[in-house]
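sorry for the late reply, my laptop died twice this morning and i had to redo everyting from scratch. anyway the thing you sent over, i finally got around to it. pasting the sequence first so we're on the same page, its 261 residues, then the predicted structure underneath. double check i copied it right bc i was rushing
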Amino acid sequence: MSSPENPSKKKLSSEDSSKITIYWEKATHSGLHSQARQQYLDSILAITPDSAFFWQQKAMPLYKDRKYSLAKPFLAKAVEHNPKSYLNYSAFMKCLFSKEYEESIAEFIEVKERYGDSYVMDHTYNFYIGLNYLQLNKFRKAKEFLEKSKVQQFADFPDDQPEEACHYLDWFYLGIADFELGDYEKAIENFDISLKVYANFADAMYYKGASLYRSGREEKGGEWIKKARENAENTINEDQVFYEIYPYQVFHRLSPLSRAK
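ok and here's the structure:
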């Protein structure tokens, strides 16, 4: 037996296939973050060490537990055995989870060169490269790749309105790049487009307020920052926000118990 996502290169006997099926069933009925699940995966990989899927399954919960140094070699093994399926995922994890921005950029560039431009976790490769550059304070490079992401989505979704064709987070981070570059009017324009799609998006409201404030409209800026705080629950709504804070995310979900009631 092998995972349908990544067939094993090794020909397995019926006995080994049966063992893997049993171990995998036990793993899936163990807690995602449990040591028991890791041990069942170890038993599987002892039989089929070239299965990228099962290496990725070992890595994923460790990344979610922020145990990056433990997770990294397991994900590297997944990439080694199936780069077409997992190199983009590795680059994504290094962008949003382990914060290895230079490595993430290098891997995304390699993916683009080897397999072409595409998407991972609902966003373009160019989007994540842009985030990496934001976190490295290379704001012009960030804007360059975020613009590429926007153009890519316009081409992929030609029948949609611009604010719909391009993801609201692309518009938000384009606004962030302009904000950091001091182009506050352009930043406000991008935040407003993001708010057309996600009307109560508190983080976009906050940076719109900050842009207004920095451009000399302190009273108006203060109003938007106040409105942002009133909408604090309406933050970035990606699946990963329960494990990591996104770049420039003002209002986050990682520690709800620490918030004032």
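The CA atoms of residues 133 and 257 lie 32 Å apart.
thats about all i looked at so far, will dig more tmrw
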